[in-house]
Please model this.
Amino acid sequence: MKKLLIYLKDYKKETVFAPLFKMLEATFELFVPLVMAAIIDRGIGQADTGYVLKMGLILVALGLIGLLCSITAQYFAAKAAVGFSTGLKHALFDHIQSLSFTEIDTLGTSTLITRMTSDVNQVQNGVNMVLRLFLRSPFIVFGAMVMAFTIDMKAALIFVVTIPLLAVVVFGIMALTMPMYKKVQAGLDAVLSATRENLTGARVIRAFHKEEEETERFEEKNGFLTHLQLVVGRISALTNPVTYIIINAATILLLYTGAVRVDNGSITQGEVVALVNYMSQILVELIKLANLIITITKALACANRIEAVFEVESSMQWQAVTADRGSVESGQTEAGSTISGTDKSAEKRNLAVEFDHVHLTYGGAGAESLSDIHIQVPRGQTVGVIGGTGSGKSSLVNMIPRFYDATTGTVRVDGRDVKSYGMEELRQKVGIVLQKAVLFRGTIRDNLLWGNGAATDEELWEALRLAQAGEFVEKKEGRLDAPVAQEGRNLSGGQRQRLTIARALVAKPEILILDDSASALDYATDAALRRALKELPRETTVFIVSQRASSIQHADQIIVLEDGEMAGCGTHEELLADCGVYQEIYYSQFDRG
Model:
């Protein structure tokens, strides 16, 4: 929690004023029993109506001032808590965005969503309650005890015994429930994960008639969460009855002691009433404090979960962008090593992409996903990547924009190790269309401008034409301003894929990667797309990952992968002559004749 408190630094005034005004309110509240004692002993006891009215006005004044202080404190506490959670959410979101795919895969989407929403809200409530009550409640508890001592020393000793007993109960319950609340939030993660999976795959579940099985799976996770919440809820629920028992027992003892002391003439009836009022104030404040402890316990558990995300460092470190970035020599590879020789340097500079004996192992994986990949791709070439399912095609191309880092070996772009680039510099060079076509809620124009925010309408239409999307966009009402639903659900699979291709083309990248991004297109549209890609500038290097041999057979070179290893590399004719894996793929799609 301490690390998260830095997000309160812009609200120092509010964090001081909120508890300060609450303390002022508490101070005025502590004077109320004394005024009541004076009314009883002097006003009522001596039948002095004027004195009763005067002291009654003082009570009203104390109430109004206390109300004003309370409202002011609530305002400052709310402002600080909301500002704190806003800063925390921004920082957490920025941190998540800075993580590499490896860390995001490890953490999981569902738990990140829970921590961004539910956990942050719990921490916000905790901060709000702490600013309002954390100082006020103890102040009134100990203040009431001090005021009781000013009335009668012997009767006040009851307070000395009662308060420590209550503290043991409250903090004991806190110690028991805090670890349990962590398990509750973890259970919430599991329920959210199951819910998200079911809602995303609702059509598949219905297609296979798996509603009952999925319902049972959800009920199992939800039942476990319910059990956890019931257990921790029962323990937390002990707070109120146990504190009431202790307070009521202390009140009974106080009334008995007070009666004896009044009979002895040591104290007055009004002072006994004041002592009982102070005991009641302690009861109310300790109930508030007990509820505050429960809220703080939840908040601390959630804060620890949020801190755990902040503590995850990205395994991928990017170079800082500097004004003289262009002074880095193209021939530079890894730290401390350069390519010697004029001819060799020229050759390296002409390479758009190079895989230098690259190996890749995903975090937690038992085996390598890619093994000893060695490829050189000259600038302007079209490269096809083909292989069976799970052969490592996507892993290969995902290393070019540095979504994942090579375990060993080096990936170079324009002769430079990708690790020597700044993120923006590298991503401007590389445009990638991922396997899953992802569009965002908004308009077609909004989605295309992700590629280049300064693109003109002419550039957008040109990209749509190259992606074979211009025809269906022109038919839509609003054309470029036609609405796009979340994840593009109001579009067909082929339309989504063509729009994602157009989005990448708007950026005019030097290296364009199409990762099986035409799988939903018919053969005619796929062929038209490949012909259109030939209109790209000659310096543009294109990687086409596909399961279709027809999509990549006209590429300048074709990389064939099998179980993460290169089974062949060459032109279509060369591979068809001497690569068994390519032959098997090709002849499974085309007749041997």
In short: The first strand starts at residue 351 and ends at 360. DSSP finds 21 helices and twelve strands in the chain. The chain has a mean pLDDT of 81.
